[in-house]
């Protein structure tokens, strides 16, 4: 490692201030700090002495995403082989899934990081680390058969409009990965819904029907999957959103490392469970009659509440605000699922909606705390003068 450190120090010289490659220093700095902890600290304002910087935080989130991603790769191949009726092994399924998923990840990173590097060089600041996670999230929440050029355009839209237009990582008000999916959904609806986009190559093979559970329910059909099928994730759906089991493993990693907010996760589950239970009592259609506990493990709810609702930039910041924010995400997710047959998923729109209102929630929570303190202070002053 010392030899690598010395080599990087030599390579850095042309990028130092006053040298011919000074303009591209942010790009070199991004590569250097990916390998080593930065050797500088903040010079003003509040800061914390900690060995874990933002880049290491993002790497931890990526580690938490890997269980769901790896299962999603396998499930992509599994769905293809069981739909076509061809014999296969675990390795066959995984290789097929990797062949379909890895190009999407490559496109997402190449397009997104190119834009990030371009803005860093233009503005003369360091490359934002937030895209390390966003670049992986975008393909993970897409249908498997979406064309790669659509992934690229959706990624560019998310980085330009949802991030850089607001100043980059830490300044955006909407989750960039969900913004990419929302753009793809409204710009290319036929590639984001229906029964031919969730199973690999379904559009080219006769007899394959890969409709999701929520899509079937929205059409008034019953589903034949067991709860364990839904929980494990052996069902059609977005690449890495189907398995609540492996998403739960990722949630545990985020909670134990202190990176993900357990308040938002638990609040989201409580809000969705309560609303699902109320609709079960009503039971006017198949989505309302769908068991509340099944609502928690199908679609993108588990993935969204763990990895995107907890985004520290776009979520509520106060402890009480996190509870309110999470509960409302869960409530709106189920409401959108039940009352919007054109888009029975719900979690994407619920999180984006609450991203917009998160600052308002924190505003009223902080103001409420201020008023309580003022009231306590007034009571204390009255006691002193009594």
Q: Mean pLDDT, rounded to whole units?
A: 85
Helix content: 55-70%
Number of domains: 1
Biggest β-sheet strands, sense, barrel: none
**Which CATH architecture?**
Orthogonal Bundle
Overall morphology: globular
Strand content: under 5%
Here the CATH topology equals Ammonium transporter fold
Low-confidence stretches: 44-48
How far is the N terminus from the C terminus? 70 Å
The CATH class, by name, is: Mainly Alpha
- The count of helical stretches stands at 16
Structure description:
The structure is a single chain. The protein is globular. The protein has 16 helices and no strands. It is mainly α and 386 residues long. The protein has a single domain (22-35, 56-374), classed as Ammonium transporter fold. α3 (54-84) runs parallel beside α5 (131-140), α4 (90-123) packs across α5 (131-140) and α6 packs across α7 (176-187).
């Amino acid at each position: 490692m010392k030899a690598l450190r010395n080599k990087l120090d030599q390579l850095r010289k042309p990028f130092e201030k006053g040298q011919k490659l000074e303009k591209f220093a942010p790009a070199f700095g991004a590569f250097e700090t990916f390998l080593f902890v930065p050797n500088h600290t903040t010079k003003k304002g509040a800061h914390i002495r900690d060995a874990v910087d933002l880049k290491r935080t993002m790497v931890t989130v990526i580690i938490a995403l890997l269980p769901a991603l790896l299962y999603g790769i396998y499930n992509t191949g599994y769905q293809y082989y069981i739909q076509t009726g061809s014999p296969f092994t675990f390795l066959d399924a995984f290789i097929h899934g990797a062949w379909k998923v890895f190009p999407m990840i490559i496109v997402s990173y190449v397009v997104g990081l190119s834009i990030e590097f371009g803005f860093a060089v233009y503005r003369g600041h360091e490359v934002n680390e937030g895209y390390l996670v966003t670049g992986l999230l975008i393909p993970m929440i897409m249908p498997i058969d979406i064309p790669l050029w659509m992934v690229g355009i959706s990624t560019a839209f998310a980085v330009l409009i949802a991030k850089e237009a607001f100043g980059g990582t830490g300044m955006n008000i909407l989750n960039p990965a969900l913004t990419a999916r929302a753009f793809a959904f409204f710009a290319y609806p036929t590639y984001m819904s229906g029964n031919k986009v969730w199973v690999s190559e379904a559009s080219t093979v006769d007899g394959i029907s890969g409709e999701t559970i929520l899509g079937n329910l929205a059409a008034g059909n019953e589903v034949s999957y067991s709860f364990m099928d839904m929980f494990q994730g052996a069902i059609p759906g977005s690449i890495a959103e189907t398995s609540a089991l492996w998403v739960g493993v990722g949630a545990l990693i985020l909670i134990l490392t202190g990176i993900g907010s357990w308040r938002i996760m638990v609040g989201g589950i409580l809000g969705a469970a309560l609303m699902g239970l109320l609709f079960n009592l009503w039971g006017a259609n198949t989505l309302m009659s769908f068991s509340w506990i099944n609502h928690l493990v199908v679609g993108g709810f588990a993935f969204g509440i763990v990895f995107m609702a907890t985004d520290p930039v776009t979520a509520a910041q106060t402890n009480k605000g996190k509870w309110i924010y999470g509960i409302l995400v869960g409530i709106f997710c189920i409401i959108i699922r039940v009352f919007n047959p054109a888009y029975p998923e719900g979690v994407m729109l619920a999180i984006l909606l609450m991203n917009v209102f998160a600052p308002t929630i924190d505003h009223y929570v902080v103001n409420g705390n201020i008023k309580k303190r003022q009231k306590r202070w007034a009571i204390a002053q009255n006691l002193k003068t009594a």
